[in-house]
């Protein structure tokens, strides 16, 4: 588990870490907190609840830079990424048990997350659906080995995980798993829900074409043009 923290309030860190500590499988978890800025030192009291618990410091360079640092620091087979305002739910115990028994390792194992104000977010069955709606990051367990070789693309400040998920799902040689278990509560007040990654949107038709073929490049580009007519340009949307 990698948690990105930037000047995190004590109350949020407490809720996040307490939700993980309450899991029956908490002792199987490695927690890596990648911190920028002020950190609530009282959180150290949760350390004994987990298999491993540590904090690393880095300059604030964005959430995906923090996640990439966490990838480098972690040692487990799987990585799940949280912000300090996200909460683990009991279904995570079942998924942890499944992943501990799985062999070979899944490159991506997708479970269900509850998104604040939106509802349940389940992984779609059709691989190409990822082009039009990303899977909730707080429900995705990645192979650490895969991410070491394919870190998040820092060209995309908000949707680097969306690009990663497209590339994983497009590669039929990779092992993908899905679970209906509800593993997390995702707080939707962050940048991913309140702003647009304009560079990613500009590049998405190309990314679609490179991964799924020219027909999907045209489909994504057409869908974007229709959305611009109906909703206005992304930079002007609220």
Show the helix and strand layout.
Layout: E1 2-6, H1 10-21, E2 30-36, E3 52-57, H2 63-73, E4 78-79, E5 81-83, E6 87-88, H3 91-101, E7 108-115, E8 119-121, E9 140-143, H4 144-149, H5 160-170, E10 176-186, H6 191-194, H7 198-212, H8 214-231
Parallel strand pairs: 1-2, 1-5, 2-3, 7-10
Antiparallel strand pairs: 4-9, 6-10, 7-8, 7-9
Helix pairs in contact: 5-7, 7-8
Describe, in plain words, how this protein is organized in 3D.
The chain has helices spanning 10-21, 63-73, 91-101, 144-149, 160-170, 191-194, 198-212, 214-231, and strands spanning 2-6, 30-36, 52-57, 78-79, 81-83, 87-88, 108-115, 119-121, 140-143, 176-186. The chain has 238 residues and is α/β, with parallel strands linked by helices. It is built from 8 helices and 10 strands. The protein is globular and about 50 Å long. Helices cover 37% and strands 21% of the residues. β7 and β8 form a beta hairpin. Strands 4, 6, 7, 8, 9 and 10 form a 6-stranded mixed sheet that branches. The protein has a 4-stranded parallel sheet with strand order 3-2-1-5, covered by helices on one side.
């Amino acid at each position: 588990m990698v948690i990105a923290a930037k000047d995190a309030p004590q109350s949020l860190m407490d809720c996040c870490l307490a939700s993980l500590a309450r899991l029956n499988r908490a002792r199987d978890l490695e927690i890596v907190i990648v911190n920028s800025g002020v950190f609530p030192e009282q959180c150290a009291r949760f350390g004994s609840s987990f298999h491993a618990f540590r904090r690393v410091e880095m300059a604030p360079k964005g959430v995906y830079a923090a996640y990439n640092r966490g990838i480098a620091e972690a040692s487990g087979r799987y990585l799940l990424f949280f912000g300090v305002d996200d909460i683990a739910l009991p279904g995570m115990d079942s998924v942890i048990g499944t992943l501990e028994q799985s062999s070979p390792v899944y490159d991506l194992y997708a479970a269900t997350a509850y998104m604040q104000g939106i509802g349940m977010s389940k992984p779609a069955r059709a691989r190409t659906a990822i082009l039009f709606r990303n899977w909730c990051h707080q429900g995705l367990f990645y192979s650490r080995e895969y991410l070491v070789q394919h870190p998040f693309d820092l060209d995309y400040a908000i949707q680097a995980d969306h690009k990663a998920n497209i590339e994983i799902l497009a590669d039929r040689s990779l092992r993908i798993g899905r679970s209906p278990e509800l593993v997390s509560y995702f707080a939707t007040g962050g940048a991913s829900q309140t702003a647009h990654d304009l560079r990613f949107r500009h590049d998405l038709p190309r990314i679609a074409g490179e991964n799924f073929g020219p027909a999907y490049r045209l489909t994504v580009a057409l869908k974007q043009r229709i959305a611009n007519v109906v909703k206005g340009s992304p930079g002007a949307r609220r």
